Amino acid sequence: MLGLQGAAVDAINPSVELTEAERIDRLRLIRSDNVGPRTFRSLVDHFGSARAALERLPDLARRGGAQRSGRICSADEAKAELAASRKFGIAWRAPGEDGYPARLAMIDDAPPLLAVRGDTKTLMRPMIAIVGSRNASGAGLKFAGLLARELGEAGFAVISGLARGVDQAAHRASVETGTVAVLAGGHDCIYPPEHGDLLTAMLDHEGAAISEMPLGHEPRARDFPRRNRLISGASLGVVVVEAAHRSGSLITARMAAEQGREVFAVPGSPLDPRAAGANDLIKQGATLVTEAADIVNAVQPIMERPLMPAGEPDSEPFESDPQGHDRDQITGLLGPAPVSIDDLVRMSGASPAIVRTVLLELELAGKLERHGGGLVSLL
Description:
Mean pLDDT is about 90; it is low at about 310-315. The protein is globular. Strand 3 (about 125-130), helix 6 (about 140-155) and strand 4 form a beta-alpha-beta unit. It has 15 helices and 12 strands. It has helices at about 20-30, 35-45, 50-65, 75-85, 120-125, 140-155, 165-175, 195-205, 225-235, 250-260, 275-285, 290-305, 325-335, 340-350, 350-365; strands at about 90-95, 115-120, 125-130, 155-160, 180, 210, 235-240, 260-265, 285-290, 340, 370, 375-379. The longest helix has 16 residues, at about 140-155. Strands 1-2-6-5-4-3-7-8-9 form a 9-stranded mixed beta sheet, sandwiched between helices. A 3-stranded antiparallel beta sheet has the order 10-12-11. It is of the alpha/beta class.
């Protein structure tokens, strides 16, 4: 036992409770074409509600150059998804509601709705992510399990991606103390399939699973980085046990740094390529970990600081109807290489409101991609 005091609470007191109609509208908006989490937030902040934003989608997409309006999820489709989810034991939670991890709600691209299954109390506890190689060494698996067990005994929930290797070792070692699986697909599409029994054991012992995907969604390669941002976003910090160069675990560590989370790494032999990525993280400033106390000591000061509620409206307004020359100028500055929104404002000479509006129109027309760090590019 590490004896951490106050580790049982890591949440803003839930103050939000959506009505059923609001939950349906939110699900409709995020399931509509070309609406991602950042766009969802911009639309709701500007128009005041998901329902009002839904009404404006066709016009905004047309202004962005769409030949025809993208698919808008119908109320019947959203109601059917919610009903099917309830039968599966899934609750869809919004930021601020009980069961939505408080730290996850603070990231820029937090899911507007999160599919939650299992013990919601575990989801409101402070979390430490443990990730690493799918092809881990025996020593790596043993150490991941040791860290997970001791962190669980100290009051933390261990969160990971249910993958082979380090992920499953961390989950198995913390089943009794509470562990959270973040799924890349829907709750009925467990990957890898052989970890279905592990997930069942987790849910039977005060564990939980979360996903932003609908039932029936089979995970694809591009879904795993999306999942990784949830792993890092929900946690106080991410521990990388073993990771080769170009490992997905390094993506999680990068996202953690971008989200302001702590990054930890377990050193390994320079002769083992499975440790190369973790060793590089230490060179870049990650906290070196040889025991669970290293993690606890690093996050204790963070836990003593109050969490700031998320969901503050964007400070910059939208322009009601940018002029054609503004659209042409801003679009002309865009290309396949990502560029920052601040640079677009500076180079175009347009106001931030006009630039943000044109980018939103292009995105809803399916012509823009948003990247981390406020970068955008044309598709």
